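Structure Section — protein described below
Tokens — whole-number codes for backbone shape
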Amino acid sequence: MQLNISQQMKMSQQMKLAPRMIQSMEILQLPVMALKERIDQELSENILLEQAVPDTAADMSDSELQFERDRDRDDRESADFERKELVVDNDKNNEADFERLMEMSKEWPDHFSSTNPSANRIDDLSSSKHDTITNIESRPESLQENLLEQFHFFNCSPAVREFGEFLIQNLDDNGRLPVNPRGTPIVGQNGAPHDSLQEMIEVYSVRISPDDAQTALSLIQKLEPRGVGARDLKECLLLQIDDDTPYRDVLIALITSHLDDLYQNRLPVIERKTGYSLDVIKEACEQLKHLNPWPGRGFDAAPAQSIVPDVYIEKDDDGKYTIRLEREYTPNLTISRKYQELLAGDADAATKEYVKRKINAARWIIDAVEQRYSTLKRVSQAIVDHQTEFLDKGPEYIVPLKMEQIADVVGVHVTTVSRAVDDKYIQTPRSIIPLKRFFGGGTTNAEGEEVAWDVIRIKLREIVDAEDKSRPLSDDALVDELAKHGYKLARRTITKYRKAMDIPSSRQRREY
């Protein structure tokens, strides 16, 4: 085989996205709070990029205008005070100075409200710092910290205490002992599950007797919340049963031997096996609902994130829905005039090149932000125009909508619509909902009209809520009921939506 080196000319077409286009797409996809972070980052990195300051009082809000008036008044008072000459008269023991100090206390009551001004200022500064600290959200207490604090009140040997602390530190998020602390399947003899306590003894770096290990675990299982330190679901529930718990013996029997029958709602089977009446079993089931299968949850939980809508819907005098974008958190941007003058001045070539590059970057981000607002407003308005009945009458009147339809109306590519609605919320007269909610798709009814999937899910929920719970409808029966309302769907579709809506099966919904 012979290898040759040669040159060839070839024509081909390639599509490459310019950096400016990539930046515009990234900015369009950001929700409002993420956009604020991106703008703050750009402001810190580009010295030529500045926040635009309103030039006139007409451009300012009432609160901003009042703030400026208060600041001007304080500046004038400070200037008047500074223009007063200090009086120095040693012959009269500086009486004029003391008189002036008394006048200052009347003119500045906030600063001279005490006989000790310096102490007052220190107190104000301390209060300000204290307020700042108290307003910082504290880290929630973890499950381990809570349990360790309780565990230290027990009087036990050092070996038991150290092993108990080791067990607490290794509890999972549910408050149970990990099934496989080594990260490998744990299987005992004859394929039976291995005791997790024994496994923890083997993982522990210090030799400890099984009796001391069991003592430590027993102490942990006495802590609050009840049920922590359990090795499985059954033990977790049994730990929460006290001597005075109603239907105690029935609960123990149900938890020990009939959890699967309870899950499948096979109450007659439990009645036949245990000899308890259905009424007693149902009363015990009500008590069982008060037990917590996940006692460790709720500690060290992340705080709920508030949703800031990107779009608000408002109704004008003519009854038409209009769009208003959220711009409170995103400042108006401008390019520094000082550096623009520097570019037109006599600066050296390297400085001008640096300033020119930063100006281009600033213009890119300003244009990208404005393009985001323009695209988001047009897309949102087109969506609202399609979903007027939904806004007027409720979710059951939502219209099937595809992104291609909105793209055709706005005159953009469908991917632009997808980025515009991604991870963004809209404040409707009814609630805050994701913009993607309007693109649920749908099917056709018996009359050939398009029906959104949300409408079918609402109808499915209504049928299930109205059924006879002693004889609940199977999935086949639900298909027939929906067909009576004009919705012809396959059984597998009904099953899929039933599970997605957390609706139990007909056997689990049955009431005895």
Remarks:
- The longest helix spans residues 349-386.
- DSSP finds 23 helices and eight strands in the chain.
